[in-house]
Write a structure and sequence with these properties.
158 residues, 8 helices
Length: 158
């Protein structure tokens, strides 16, 4: 958060929006892009190492398959592109959805098999991706922001 909202983050946003205009105001695009690549690679490497050794317990070839890459991409799309809180919200939704689908139906008296839970999870995630890409491209982060704004002025809407 400090990187994104500080001087470096403003340089990144200027280069992202229009690199020619950023260069005209004194920001050098090549070092800025290299810095963004280096910092994002650092965070991806640390998170991958933590995931392998703390979550999976060991580095095997089957850990990082194509489905894992798509899950990370889906977390970002559903959560909202370009926001920190959106990444957390998307990851929480993708992670918690199969758990909810597995434990809530037996409480309601429905017997659902594990394969059915997995298929329903795929269908719900696919529908959410289509919904967020068409209706709300900024994802859950924007919906969270709208809800906070509405709750802030709730008793008195004017």
């Amino acid at each position: 958060s400090n990187l994104v909202h500080g001087r470096i983050g403003r340089m990144w946003m200027a280069v992202r929006d229009m690199d020619i205009a950023a260069e005209l105001i004194g920001i050098r695009p090549l070092p800025t892009k290299l810095l963004a690549f280096a910092i994002s690679s650092f965070y991806c490497g640390v998170s991958g190492a933590l995931m392998v050794f703390l979550w999976y317990g060991g580095a095997e070839a089957t850990v990082f398959n194509l489905n894992q890459s798509f899950n990370v991409l889906f977390m970002i799309i559903i959560g909202g592109l370009g926001s920190l809180i959106g990444s957390y919200l998307g990851a929480a939704l993708i992670f918690i959805l199969p758990i909810v689908l597995r434990f809530v139906p037996p409480r309601l008296g429905l017997d659902i098999q594990a394969a059915t839970v997995e298929h329903v999870t795929f269908m719900i995630v696919g529908a959410l991706i289509i919904f967020f890409l068409i209706v709300e491209p900024h994802g859950l982060a924007r919906l969270w922001q709208i809800a906070k704004q509405k709750l802030r002025v709730w008793p008195f809407p004017y």
